[in-house]
Amino acid sequence: MSRHYLPRAALAFLLVWANGCKREEPPTPPIEKPPACPTAEELDALPLPAAVPTTGTRLCRDGWCWVSHEPQGHDLHAVWSHPTEGAWMVGQAGTVLHWKQDHWTWQSTPTSRTLRGVWGSSPADIWAVGDAGTILHFDGTGWTAVPAPGAAVDLLSVEGVSSREVWAAGREGRLLRWDGSSWALVPTGTSAELMEVSILSADDVWVSAQGVGLLRCTPAGCVGQAGPSTVGATEPPQDMWERGSERWVTFGYNPPVPFLWKDGAWLEAPIAQPPPGPGPFSSYSDLWMGGANDAWVLVSGQASPSIGYKFIYHWDGGTWTRLEKPYAHLSERNATLWAVGTLGGSGPSDLWAIGDRGAVMRWDGTTWRELRALRGFLAAYSPNIPMVPEAYPLGISASPDGARVWANPNAGQSRFDMTASTWATSEGEWHAHLIPPPRDRWSSSEFTVSGTGVQPLQGLLAGDPAPWRARIHATARDNVWAMDSQRLWAWEGQAWRIALEGQGELFAVWTHGAKDTWVAGAEKLLHWDGESWQEHPTPGFTASALWGAWRRDLWAVGRKGSTAALFHWDGGEWREVSSDALVGIGSLEAVAGRCASEVYVAGSGGALLHWDGATWSRMTLPTTMNLYGVATVGKELWVSGGQGAILRQPRPAR
Would the pLDDT of 363 be above 70? Predict the structure, then answer.
């Protein structure tokens, strides 16, 4: 057999030729994965965020603490005080506060209903009543719910004379009596709203009925009780007090007029009606009566169309005196004085004034002292603004390390921010960063706000985004997106350009990069891929906020019809996500997270949801305020709501 061998040079040539003809395979693209979630150890290693307040008294309950306000921000409706054991105040979201010798406690209760009345026979026997027939009892160690007979009707007041004789009144003619063992219905013969209860004994109970007048009741039922001859037959009393065997009653509003019931007859009370304020129109709080020589009232009104006032007046038996110090006139701009409206106490040297947003003042017989400090958002907003209405809901965001927290007003009620200022907190104190709107021209420095801070943008031109009414999101200094209600701008490092308009009202923006930006419009979501916009219809659903862990995992939260709704983007399509956690929520307003398996959503009625990567669940939050912001702050979780309210959930070390 003969064999033929190729010369070595020819063989080398063939090998080179063969290799040159082989098809080159494209490199395998790396598998794209979502960012990893921080481990428990990594979270534990984070220092306490510098934004966490370290001074003052911020109350905590059920794992949540107030950041703004101090000590807390729920509205307060009623107070009962004991001469030596302090005062108990009740109000919004099942709030019960106890104060004793300058020490505050936010006591846990088994309800989130608003509480409207409180009374006790002793510090170990206190009753609180509120909405939907809520009745709570305190035995000195804790609060428990006590069943109320009949339908769930709002209860407005509670009074008693002993641990075995307590009465509660409410709407729809509801009157209840506690005999020491159980609550029972008392027939009233009316469906009117019962506002106040006054008790001298089990057989001498008076009730004020709206549009009916006075009722005199026993456990068997009620009959009409005539008022003073100078008062209309159906004019209800505004307040009633028992002082020994005497009963003091005030009738009317502007001003309230006090009368005395004694020995079975009405007597013209030896107290002059409170004086009017300096303006043409005055309004009065309920009087507090300590006796013939001791009465208090709050008087407010308008001295002129632009100047308001609020004063505290005291009756000493001969004349009404306006207290000039420490709280006199609106010129002192005291927000607490403006917020209080309810008076109550145990005696002449223990009087309380309580009201909205946790406002508390106390009279010790010598001086009125403010027990609420506006160290939070309200103080930073302006010490010269006496009131902050519900029109100031807050949105909130934070820098990744938690060293800065940014709060912007009107971040939820209107669908875009109309921000005149931005508040930042560091080292426990809030600071205002003003963003003044231009007057005739864009001449002053303007600012954009994102989760990484405030950056000055010089030389804005007419038509550029107005920062005080813009939602903004950014991933880098050269990838910033800003929107108002009608247009979207992009900042790529040199100048703003209009990126989107003519799509109707816009509500939210989220960007993952220059070629991956989402915008929420009315019943649609719009996507920018770097070259063009694509529209994704969401019939019936409009998103109020967007957040994503990465480009294939984005959440849109908002409302569909009259209920809350969630939509999720998986990189290919938007799908509505159903969950039992959404039941009973009117709307969702904010969304934020740390990673794909740790996402939070906040909404109306204090709703707070958590996504663990598989299911949504409801979180327990000790408030029923509407929430407009949520942010992960270092290893903590923060939420924000109306009237400057902010709460934080410290994350315990594992």
Answer: yes
Of 459 and 84, the one with more pLDDT: 84
Q: How much helix, strand and coil, in percent to the nearest 5, is found in the chain?
A: 10, 50, 45
Angle at 290 between CA 284 and CA 293, to 5 degrees: 95
- Chain centroid, CA 519 distance in Å: 27
Give the whole-angstrom CA distance, residue 587 versus residue 626: 9
Rounded CA-CA distance 51/90 in Å is 29
Give 331's pLDDT tier (boundaries 50, 70, 90). very low
What is the spatial order of strands in the sheet that 598-603 belongs to? 588-595, 598-603, 608-611, 616-618
3-class state of residue 230 by DSSP: coil
Three-state secondary structure call for residue 457: strand
Name the E strands within 7-134.
Answer: 60-61, 64-68, 76-82, 86-91, 96-100, 103-107, 115-122, 125-130
Identify the band that residue 353 occupies on the pLDDT scale cut at 50, 70 and 90.
very high
pLDDT category at 38 given cuts 50, 70, 90 is confident
* Close Cβ partners of 571 (under 8 Å, ≥ 6 residues apart): 551, 552, 553
pLDDT of residue 556: 98
Whether the Cβ atoms of residue 34 and residue 596 lie closer than 8 Å to each other:
yes
What is the structure's pLDDT at 341? 86
Closest CA to 90 of 60, 118, 66: 118
Backbone angles phi, psi at 292, to 5 degrees: -65, -20
Percent of the chain at pLDDT > 90 equals: 45
Q: Does 518 score more than 50 pLDDT?
A: yes
Where does 360-443 have alpha helices with state H? 377-381
- Cβ-based neighbours of 23, under 8 Å, separated by 6 or more: none
What distance, in Å, lies between the first and last C-alpha atoms of the chain?
82
Number of other CB atoms surrounding residue 20 within 10 Å: 7
Give the pLDDT band (50/70/90) at residue 391.
very low
How many residues are present in the chain? 654
Residues 557/543, Cβ–Cβ less than 8 Å: yes
Of 378 and 75, which is predicted with more confidence?
Answer: 75
Bridge partners (DSSP) of residue 398 are 405
Around Cβ 580, how many Cβ atoms within 10 Å?
Answer: 10
Q: For residue range 66-99, what is the model confidence (pLDDT) as tens digits?
A: 887 778 989 999 999 999 999 999 999 999 999 9
Backbone phi, then psi, for 653, in 5-degree steps?
-65, 145
Residue 423 to residues 51, 405, 529, 644, Cα–Cα distance (Å): 12, 8, 34, 11
Mean pLDDT score across all residues of the chain: 80
pTM of the entire predicted model: 0.84
- Judge whether 600 and 630 are in contact, CB under 8 Å: yes
Given a contact cutoff of 8 angstroms between Cβ atoms, the answer to whether 442 and 434 are in contact is no
pLDDT at 236 over 70: no
pLDDT at 399: 66
Distance CA 25, CA 294 (A): 96
Q: Which residues pair with 545 in a beta bridge?
A: 557
577 token code pair: 């996500």
Q: What is the pLDDT of residue 414?
A: 29
Pair 608, 592: CB distance under 8 Å: no
What contacts 265, CB < 8 A, 6 or more positions away?
Answer: none
Q: How far apart are CA 147 and CA 422, in angstroms?
A: 47
How far CA 447 is from CA of 332, 443, 470, 483, 496, in Å, comes to 32, 13, 11, 14, 13
Residue 121 near residue 160 (C-beta atoms within 8 A): yes
